[in-house]
Amino acid sequence: MERTRLDTGVDSSPLLESGNTNNEARGTVFQSASRFIRRAGGRRMMREPSMLVRENAAQQLEERQSDWAYSKPVIILDILWNLSFVVVSVVILSSTLDERPTTPLRIWIVGYALQCILHMSYVAYEYIRR
């Protein structure tokens, strides 16, 4: 069988040609492997430095965009929002001390205020930790 080469530099002949002895076939395999390793180590297969810089910049931008929820303005807004619910809960509970409702609405209000306090403390802890 005759070996053919394409313009791409790839050897299109089969690795094991019929009629070859084991030594000849093994030599063909090793030659093909060494050619591949030489090409892989060449400049064409390596990434260019500018491509690495672009990939690194894109990765950093993606990380920043995914962490927008931990930015200072969002944290402050979140804490103020939950603090306002706590203040409203305290005001409502203090203004209705004399009332005796039949439904346990006060328990729900106290539970919600506690949940807001826990949420604010967790958000502040996460912000300080990051």
From TrEMBL:
Predominant subcellular localization, coarse grouping: membrane
Keywords assigned: Membrane, Metal-binding, Transferase, Transmembrane, Transmembrane helix, Ubl conjugation pathway, Zinc, Zinc-finger
Highest taxon in the source lineage: Eukaryota
Membrane-related topology note: Multi-pass membrane protein
GO BP annotations listed: protein ubiquitination; ubiquitin-dependent protein catabolic process
Subcellular location: Membrane
Annotated signal sequence range: none
Any GO CC annotation of this UniProt entry: plant-type vacuole
Catalytic reaction(s) noted: S-ubiquitinyl-[E2 ubiquitin-conjugating enzyme]-L-cysteine + [acceptor protein]-L-lysine = [E2 ubiquitin-conjugating enzyme]-L-cysteine + N(6)-ubiquitinyl-[acceptor protein]-L-lysine
Family matches, as PANTHER family: OS02G0674700 PROTEIN (PTHR45977:SF28), TARGET OF ERK KINASE MPK-1 (PTHR45977)
Protein name (record): RING-type E3 ubiquitin transferase
Organism for this UniProt entry: Pinus radiata
